[in-house]
Amino acid sequence: MAAIRVRGVSVYFGGFQTLRSVELEVGEGEFLAVIGPNGSGKTTLLRTIVGVLRPRVGAVYIDGKELQEYSRLELARRLGYVPQGLERQKFLTVLEFVLTGRRPYISFDYARVDYEKAMEALRRVNAEHLAARTLDTLSGGEFQRVVIARALAGEPEVLVLDEPTSNLDPRFQLEIMDMLRGLTGDRITVVSSMHDLTQAYRYADKVVALKGGQIYAMGRPEEVLTEDNLQRIYGVKVKVFPEHRAIILDNSL
Ligand code: ADP
Ligand code: MG
């Protein structure tokens, strides 16, 4: 059974249609990369998958059950979401913030196990040393890793991330991508939007390319990330090096 199934989903903002009849499946423990130009509907798709947005037409299923049939608590335990451009609550410490990822599991107050899970999540993103810092003192990349840690602290079965590596330097980009790949080994399903096409090629099992709110192409990275497709999707020339699993953008080619 697919961990995530999106069936005939259309999303509108007022009269404006942002997603058109989107249909996709992600298997348990698979890594799906969502690519596409700015405004193509990536964030809208991710927000629909985690239930922040409700489609006007169609439905999203998690483990075979429609999103609307889950209680909020059940859903919060299964899904982790790392949004883009989250506001910082300045005076919280990193540990306090990451602990909020344990909320779906606590009844009264945090227990020892919650602190352990929070610290373990910080270790996973190499941010353990930041635990006592307040959020306002973090660099953009440090904060991004801490937001990912908060999602991991909730032990999600499905982790959805919106451009998680956009603020990170090359080393941390690779660390986060390796870490996400490692999660799929623990049968966690990962869905992530991204702009780095080489990373999509190297890390994803499956790529969905959006254009104008529709799925333009979907399949294995080597099927979707072709020079023809990418030129049509982004309107720029690209060069694909399949033997290196690498892609460069270059209008001079
Ligand atoms: P992407 O993440 O691929 O850049 P988005 O999903 O954020 O794209 O946006 C897709 C389209 O939907 C854009 O044209 C955007 O302006 C529109 N849109 C997104 N959110 C809203 C909203 N809350 N209200 C109105 N329009 C929106
Ligand atoms: Mg977006």
Helix and strand layout, with pairings?
Elements: E1 2-13, E2 16-27, E3 31-35, H1 42-49, E4 57-62, E5 65-66, H2 72-78, E6 79-82, H3 94-99, H4 112-124, H5 140-153, E7 158-162, H6 170-185, E8 189-193, H7 197-203, E9 206-211, E10 214-219, H8 221-224, H9 227-234, E11 238-241, E12 246-249
Helix pairs in contact: 4-5
The structure holds adenosine-5'-diphosphate (ADP) and magnesium ion (MG).
What attributes characterize this protein structure?
12 strands, binds adenosine-5'-diphosphate, four-stranded antiparallel β-sheet, alpha/beta, 253 residues, Rossmann fold, 9 helices, 28% strand
Q: Could you give me the name of the CATH homologous superfamily?
A: P-loop containing nucleotide triphosphate hydrolases
CATH architecture: 3-Layer(aba) Sandwich
Please give the largest β-sheet: 6 strands, mixed
Compute the number of structural domains.
1
- CATH fold title: Rossmann fold
> Tally of extended strands?
12
**Could you give the distance between the termini?**
43 Å
Protein name: ABC transporter domain-containing protein
Keywords: ATP-binding, Nucleotide-binding, Translocase, Transport
Pfam family, one: ABC_tran
GO molecular function: ATP binding; ATP hydrolysis activity
Structural summary, described in words:
- This protein has helices spanning 42-49, 72-78, 94-99, 112-124, 140-153, 170-185, 197-203, 221-224, 227-234; strands at residues 2-13, 16-27, 31-35, 57-62, 65-66, 79-82, 158-162, 189-193, 206-211, 214-219, 238-241, 246-249.
- The protein is of the alpha/beta class.
- The chain has a single domain (2-249), classed as P-loop containing nucleotide triphosphate hydrolases (Rossmann fold, 3-Layer(aba) Sandwich), CATH 3.40.50.300.
- A six-stranded mixed beta sheet has the order 6-7-8-3-9-10, with helices on both faces. A four-stranded antiparallel beta sheet has the order 2-1-4-5, with helices on one face.
- Helix 4 crosses helix 5 (140-153).
- The longest helix is centred in the last third of the chain and has 16 residues, at 170-185.
- The relative contact order is 0.17.
- Adenosine-5'-diphosphate is lined by residues 13, 18, 36, 38-44.
- Magnesium ion (MG) is lined by residues 42-43, 84, 162.
